[in-house]
Design goal:
single chain, 310 residues, alpha+beta, five-stranded antiparallel beta sheet, four-stranded antiparallel beta sheet, 38% strand
Length: 310
């Protein structure tokens, strides 16, 4: 506790009062004194700064020598007007610079649109450098003024600059939602959904047949009334395929022929796979040496989007 008080700050006093008089005041006023010792005809002690008024009142012959710690440092600085002025200038400068925008960076798909955005910002009064006080208001006003030219616009702040990302209506991809149900094109076991809109009629690990409706465009509400829905997405399922490959019998060792046929079977199994579709598992059914040929039969488990026609 004493070390903490010393760090924060305490007053150092000298007094010509007797030790007996000081002890009496300590007992009556409940003072907390530290480092009390006698030096010739004087008494030296340290006391918390909050006792300064009390000590001046009840121990009039006491003299304040100095104040230690952080409080003492601050009090000494306060006696130097030039330092106070420097601190105030630094705070003002820091606050001003931290709220000032010195650059605007534009990220978009059309150079003419960048110039249009800069001209619009100048018309709105945002000419570099400017004081940043309401970024949301600026973004709302900018979107309103450019609604006929810009399809999407976002403003973010990075330090002392604004970053504006935009897409012009000329290059924006506007997708129309349909109400077509997602129907299974082949048999499979549901692996996962990538559906943004629609009513799922099946769950993961359900076995479905070709022609089953997987995602419906109708939802029954709490009043048992049917509500139409837009449908968007796809459904991935485990599907199966058997591949037969063979090669003429040569002098090449059988292990090499085995791997040659295996890679050929994998190419055959995956040749119709689209993005995000893959081979999940392969099971070699047989590898046999016939008269003049070597053949291999493999059963593949695939992960495919079974709702999008091929």
């Amino acid at each position: 506790m004493r070390n903490r008080r010393s760090t924060i700050g305490m007053d150092v006093w000298e007094s010509t009062a007797s030790m007996k008089q000081l002890y009496r005041l300590v007992k009556e006023r409940n003072w907390q004194l530290y480092e009390l010792f006698e030096q010739q005809d004087r008494i030296c002690f340290c006391a918390p700064i909050v006792l300064r008024r009390d000590i001046h009142q009840f121990l009039p012959n006491a003299q304040l020598i100095k104040t230690t710690g952080m409080i003492g440092f601050l009090l000494r600085q306060m006696r130097m007007p030039q330092r106070i002025l420097c601190i105030l200038c630094a705070i003002t400068l820091w606050f001003g610079l931290s709220h000032t925008i010195f650059a605007i960076q534009l990220y978009g798909d059309h150079e003419e649109s960048k110039q249009l955005i800069l001209r619009t910002l100048t018309e709105m009064g945002y000419q570099i450098p400017f004081y940043a006080h309401d970024m949301q208001g600026m973004k709302t006003e900018l979107r309103k003024r450019l609604e006929n030219d810009i399809a999407w616009l976002e403003v973010s702040r990075q330090g002392s600059r604004y970053e504006i990302h935009f897409t012009t209506k000329e290059f924006a991809q506007l997708e129309e939602l349909s109400q077509n149900e997602l129907v299974a094109q082949k048999d499979g076991v549901i692996e996962h959904f990538e559906v943004q809109h629609g009513n799922k009629l099946v769950a993961i690990n359900d076995f479905v047949h070709a022609g089953d409706v997987l995602v419906s465009n109708v939802l029954t509400d709490s009043k048992n009334e049917e509500q139409p829905l837009y449908v968007k997405g796809c459904v991935y399922a485990y599907t199966w395929r058997e591949v037969h490959v063979e090669a003429p019998k040569t002098k090449m060792p059988k292990p090499f022929v085995f791997y040659q046929l295996l890679f050929e079977a994998r190419r055959e199994a995956s040749k119709d796979l689209r993005e995000k579709e893959s081979i999940y598992k392969e099971n070699i059914l047989q590898f046999q040496d016939n008269a003049g040929t070597i053949s291999m039969d493999i059963h593949y488990t695939l992960i495919e989007d079974i709702t999008t026609p091929r």
